[in-house]
Every structure is written in C-alpha cells, then in structure tokens.
Q: What sequence folds into this?
C-alpha cells in the first residue's frame, strides 16, 4: 500500500487528508503536535486497523523533524503533505505589525516545509509516487492580491511558493520528486471560519485529485483544489 505523511493532522484539512487517504487504504503517517488533544485523529487511528499511525511532531522543532526522519529511516513515503500552517495571532493590517509573530509565522509556513523536505527527501525519493506537496494559499499570489493586508501570512506563503519551485527543480533532478504548491480553496475549518465557501471534504478530495495527477510537467507549479492553475 502507498504511504502518505501529513503534518498538522489533528484537525481541519490535515485531519481530512488523513481520513480520506485511510478510507482509500493508504498507510497514513499522521503527524500532530499534541496527540492527547487530537481526539478525532485518535479515533480514526483506533478504527483504522493499523493503517493510521499517529506521530508527535511540532514542525517548528527542527530537531524533532530530524528525529522522526531517523525513526522512519528506510520507510518509503509516496506523498508528503506540508499542511500545518498559521495566519499568525496578530497584526494582519497595516500599522499593527508584530514582528515577533512574523518570525513564528515564517518558521511554521515557510521554514518548516523546507526542513521537512530536507529531512524526508530520501523517504519520498525511494517511493513509487515521489510527491511532495505544500499547502499554500491564493493569498500568496501577488497577481491575485487585490485586497491588501495579511502581511505576514501572504509573505510567508509567497516564500513557501518560492521554496516549492526550487524544490521541484532540485529534488526533481536529484530524486525524481514532484513538488508542487496547492491552494485548498476557502474552507470551513478553524482557520477558514464558518462562512467559508466549501467544506474540508470537498477541498481535500479536490487536492487529492491534483496530487494524483501530478507529473513532471505539472510539478513546480501552483494548483487550486479545483484543478485550475494559479499565477504566482
Ligand atoms: N481554511 C482555509 O480556508 C485555508 C485557505 C488557504 C490555505 N489554507 C492552508 O491550509 C492549511 C491547513 O489549514 P486549516 O484550514 O486546516 O487550518 P487550521 O484549522 O487552523 O489547522 C491548522 C493546523 O496546523 C497545525 N499546526 C499549527 N502549528 C503547528 C506546529 N507548530 N506543528 C505542527 N502542526 C501545527 C494545527 O495543529 P494544532 O491542532 O496542534 O494546533 C492544525 O492541525 C494551512 O497551511 C493553511 O494556511 C487554509
């Protein structure tokens, strides 16, 4: 069975990725920073006949990423999903920037996905599918920014997009890995809020279709959950 690793798998889109891949019979390495607080994920794991394994991982703890990569050494990971992310706790409007918060936002949204790629490139490279996707946002698209604001979130996810393009080139050449950035839509999660346009099930089903259709030609690009391509 193919294996998928998902970060931030305790709630929202990460939990839904875990649920849908498990439903399809995949082995799921569900990474969550506080397993004791992730009751839905624990239930999914308990009912999965061993297909869903819960791993403790705060992705801003880079030593912990290295430790998990070592624990899983020799293991093939077909799809790695950098899903964990944050909009930051404060300061999305001009004049209220909190740069200590920016550092946390960048560490989670941009540095951690690169660290995950560095730690797990070997695991993904030895798999059959060799896919490494990062959940970005349309708010990172400079071409689509017609509203302003959200400085740290937009900037950190734009940095993530730049990282994804280099990963697609470097890991594509070296390991045959297909890297891409995804936009999940505006989704009813804790982050998206109750007024968002779609539910997590539809978003993740769409992103899974995009992941399944990734090819060398489609790697290094920015895809929305509905299969449309976004401009940087
Ligand atoms: N919802 C939307 O409309 C929307 C739109 C565009 C892009 N996105 C992107 O989609 C991704 C998932 O968003 P969501 O809507 O599911 O958000 P969410 O409901 O706020 O969930 C955020 C997830 O990130 C995890 N996380 C936060 N800090 C972490 C850390 N240090 N280490 C490991 N995990 C951590 C959280 O875990 P805890 O439970 O431990 O806090 C949680 O699982 C994010 O990258 C987000 O930027 C979402």
A:
């Amino acid at each position: 069975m193919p294996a998928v690793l998902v970060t931030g798998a305790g709630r929202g889109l990460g939990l839904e990725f875990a649920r849908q891949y498990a439903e399809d019979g995949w082995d799921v390495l569900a990474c969550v920073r506080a397993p004791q607080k992730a009751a839905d994920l624990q239930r999914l794991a308990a009912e999965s006949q061993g297909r869903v394994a819960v791993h403790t991982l705060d992705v801003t703890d880079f030593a912990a990423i290295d430790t998990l990569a070592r624990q899983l050494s020799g293991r093939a990971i077909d799809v790695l999903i950098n899903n964990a992310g944050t909009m930051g706790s404060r300061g999305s409007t001009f004049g209220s920037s909190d740069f200590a918060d920016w550092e946390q936002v960048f560490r989670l949204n941009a540095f951690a996905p690169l660290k995950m790629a560095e730690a797990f490139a070997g695991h993904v490279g030895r798999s059959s599918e060799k896919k490494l996707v990062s959940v970005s946002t349309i708010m990172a698209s400079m071409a689509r920014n017609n509203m302003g604001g959200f400085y740290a979130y937009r900037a950190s996810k734009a940095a993530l997009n730049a990282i994804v393009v280099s990963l697609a080139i470097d890991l594509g050449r070296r390991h045959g890995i297909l890297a891409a950035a995804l936009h999940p839509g505006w989704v009813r999660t804790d982050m998206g809020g109750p007024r968002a346009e779609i539910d997590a099930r539809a978003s993740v089903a769409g992103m899974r279709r995009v992941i399944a259709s990734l090819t060398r030609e489609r790697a290094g690009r920015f895809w929305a959950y509905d299969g449309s391509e976004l401009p940087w």
Q: What stands out?
A: The chain has a mean pLDDT of 97.
